[in-house]
Amino acid sequence: MPHAPQHADVATAELDSALRGGPFHVALRAAIAARGLPLQRVQHHLSRHGVKVGVTSLSYWQQGARRPQRPESLRAVRALEEILELPEESLIRLLAETGDSVSGAQRSAARSYRSLVEASGVLDQLLADLGCPPDGGLHTLAHHERLRIGARRELAERESHHIVRAHRDGVDRFVAVHHGDRGAVPERMAVHALENCRVGRVRRHGDTGVLAAELLFDTRLRAGDTFLFRYGVEDGTAGVSREYVRGFDAAGGQYALQVCFDAAALPVRCHRFAQHSVAAPRSGCQELAMSGRHRSVHLVEPRVRAGFLGIGWDWE
C-alpha cells in the first residue's frame, strides 16, 4: 500500500512527459498505464462510444507496431482522449506531428497526414451535426465516380453513382462527403441530386475544404434491400489538381474511377496507384493510357480492400 501513491506519481509524470513530447504510441501506452486499465476494458469503453477496435489493434498502437490511420481509427483516438481523461486533441496532435515527419515520398503529394487527421476530426463534427452515426446502415456493392478536370486544371466537378444494400431496417439517407483540393472553398460548392435522391442538409468547413451533404431517399429501406442513387458536386474552387484519392475503411464491392480532362488542359501522363495507409508508400503504380476521343483515363477495382486507390496526373 505505501508504494501505490509513489507508483501513481511516477505514472502521472511519465504521462505528462509523453503528452508533451510524444511520440504517439509512448503517450498512449503511458495513458493506459496511468489509468490502470487493461486493454479489454479500454475496448469495452470504446464500444460504448460506438467505436469498434480490437484488443490486438490497441496493443499494436501502444507498441508502435501500427498507427491508427483510417477514419474509424481516428474516431477511436478521439474517444480514447475522453476515456483516458486526457486533454482534448492531445493524442490527435501527436499523431499528426508524427505523421508529418514521414518522408515526402511516403505521403500523398496533395494532402499531408496532418491535413487528413484534421479533416477527419472536422468530418466527425459535421456528421454529428447531421445526426449521422459513423455506420450509416449501408454496404456499398458498387461505386462509380466520374471527375471532370477543367480548362484551368482544376477539379471542376465530381459525379458519384452508388449501388448499396441496407443491413438494417429504416435506412432512408446517405451522407456524401467531398474533400476539395488545397484552397477549396466549400461555401461556393453546389450539391446536385441526380437520381433517386434529393438534397437535404449541407454542412461545410472552409479551413479544410470539407463538405458533407445529406442525400434523402424516396423510400425507407429494409435490411437486405438494394438501392441505386446518383449525385454530383460542383467544385472548381481550388487551384491546380494533380490527383484524386478515394479511401476505403474496409473491404467491399466494386469501385470505378474515371477522370475526364478538358481539351484545353491535357496532362502529359497519368497513372493509377494504391496505398495501404496514409503513411505507407504507394504501390501498384501503373501508367494509364488516355482515350483519344473522350480524353479520359480510368481504373476499375472488382473488389476493393481497406486503404486507398487513386489516379494521379502530371502537367507539362
How would you concisely characterize the structure shown here?
The chain has about 325 residues and is of the alpha+beta class. Helices cover about 30% and strands about 35% of the residues.
CATH fold category name of the largest domain = Immunoglobulin-like
Helical region count? Answer: 7
Q: Pairing-aware structural class of the strands and helices? A: alpha+beta
Q: How many domains make up the coordinates?
A: 2
CATH top level class name of the largest domain: Mainly Beta
Low-confidence stretches: 1-5, 100-110
Strand content: 25-35%
Order of strands across the widest beta sheet? 4-7-2-1-9-12
Q: Give the N-terminus to C-terminus distance in angstroms.
A: 71 Å
